[in-house]
Amino acid sequence: MGALDGRVAVITGAGRGIGREHALLFAREGASVVVNDLGGSNAGEGADTGPAQDVVDEIRAAGGKAVANSGNVALWDGAQNLVDQALAEFGRLDVVVNNAGILRDGFIASLEELQWDAVIAVHLKGHFNVLRHAAAYWKQESKAGRQPQAAVVNTASASGVTLPNAGQVNYGAAKAGIAAMTLVAAEELERYGVRVNAIAPMARTRLTLATPGMGAIFAAEVPEGEFDAFSPANISPLVAYLATDKCPLTGKVFAVQGGAISELGGWHDVKTIETDGPWEIDDIAGRLP
Ligand SMILES: NC(=O)c1ccc[n+]([C@@H]2O[C@H](COP(=O)([O-])OP(=O)(O)OC[C@H]3O[C@@H](n4cnc5c(N)ncnc54)[C@H](O)[C@@H]3O)[C@@H](O)[C@H]2O)c1
């Protein structure tokens, strides 16, 4: 028995890195997987059907079920096609793993408009696009009396939730938005039987290998037989658990790296000052710092 037997999952950006590991594990655990990947560069330029198809071939060679989708999740219709393909190929949809991502780092004072737009489009809008079309299907199922036991796992980042990273204003803002989107979606979609959680992973992939300061740490050789704490495969068991029909969790964000999983807490009051009437600016200046 696999933990995901009979479930149908769409995994975005699953041609490489962390998403590829999700797809391989999901298929080993019995899920039918739509492997989405645009196949572009780190910066999201170009397209190639190869990465998604290679993962599908690998899954099928091992006896699993998968189909490839090389659409762009940043496009409304690309996300609609992805959801439609899951329904056409496998007859249902139980899980969305939003994972596709790019980087176009730069410092604020010199960031180009396209660097901002491209990163927001792939991460923030790309997550929303797939969530939106899947939610419409799950709502329809629920209204028809077939209450889903569905799960969405989004991909945030330390850059957006715990570790502000100079040079990643576009990426950090998108990832913080994804964490917020996760909480709103968990509230909203519970009535349709949909749980929504997010992860903030850390692993060796082409994205981190190309990140200044991180590449060398992540590329270090791991002696034979030792636990590879930066392997992208370390991220997938948590995502698979969150995707099971037995998992009760929703509205959570987890940091995950190597052998560690941490539940993260969001914004909360740390200090309150009050007045009985309108504030004077000087009162605030005297009491807030
Ligand atoms: N690797 C880390 O340590 C780390 C840390 C924090 C967050 N993340 C996040 O994890 C996710 C996976 O990243 P990764 O490190 O495995 O990188 P990766 O580059 O290995 O994989 C990302 C995949 O997404 C695909 N993709 C990009 N734009 C797409 C689009 N518009 N439509 C469909 N597919 C698209 C790429 O072709 C690529 O194969 C990303 O969301 C990333 O921001 C990774």
From TrEMBL:
The keyword Oxidoreductase applies. This is SDR family oxidoreductase. SUPFAM superfamilies: NAD(P)-binding Rossmann-fold domains (SSF51735). Pfam families: adh_short. Residues 7-226 form the Ketoreductase domain. It comes from the Bacteria. Keywords: Oxidoreductase. SMART domains: PKS_KR. Transmembrane segments: none annotated. InterPro entries: KR_dom (IPR057326), NAD(P)-bd_dom_sf (IPR036291), Peroxisomal_Beta-Oxidation (IPR051687), Sc_DH/Rdtase_CS (IPR020904), SDR_fam (IPR002347). One of its GO terms (molecular function) is oxidoreductase activity. Belongs to the short-chain dehydrogenases/reductases (SDR) family.
